[in-house]
Amino acid sequence: MPTPPLDPISKATKSQIAAHLEGPRWGLERDERLAFTSWLADRRDAPLASSAELTETEGRRALNAIERCAKPKTLLGQWRADPAGLPGEAEALGAVG
């Protein structure tokens, strides 16, 4: 079991991420939500088993990207095409407003 982060993600941030990604706008299954959140948080070291493994800073980074995203399909397409790529590159594609 991974060691909990020093700055654990808050329940509020976890709930907000879940509320967005569980909705029809994103259309992701649980495993996809975790992988996508990990990508948005720039966590390349190991796949997340739970969003509780994120720090608050990582969670806020992911949440900010989700909330700013104007074109979910474009951002999801980038993630699926290159899961090792950087989420910041999504701005160049116009996925983030």
Protein described:
51% of the residues lie in helices and 0% in strands. The longest helix is centred in the middle third of the chain and has 13 residues, at 56-68. It is globular, with a radius of gyration of 12 Å. With 97 residues, the chain is mainly alpha-helical. It has helices spanning 11-21, 30-40, 56-68, 72-81, 90-93. The termini are far apart. The model has no long low-confidence stretch (mean pLDDT 85).
Terminal-residue CA separation: 37 Å
DSSP summary, beta strand count: 0
Largest sheet: none
What portion of residues belong to β-strands? Answer: under 5%
Radius of gyration: 12 Å
SS-based class: mainly alpha
Helix fraction, binned, reads: 40-55%
The average pLDDT is 85
The shape is globular
List the helices and strands and how they pair.
Blueprint: H1 11-21, H2 30-40, H3 56-68, H4 72-81, H5 90-93
Name its key features:
97 residues, mainly alpha, 51% helix, 0% strand, globular
Task: Give a summary of the structure in a few sentences.
With 97 residues, this protein is mostly helical.
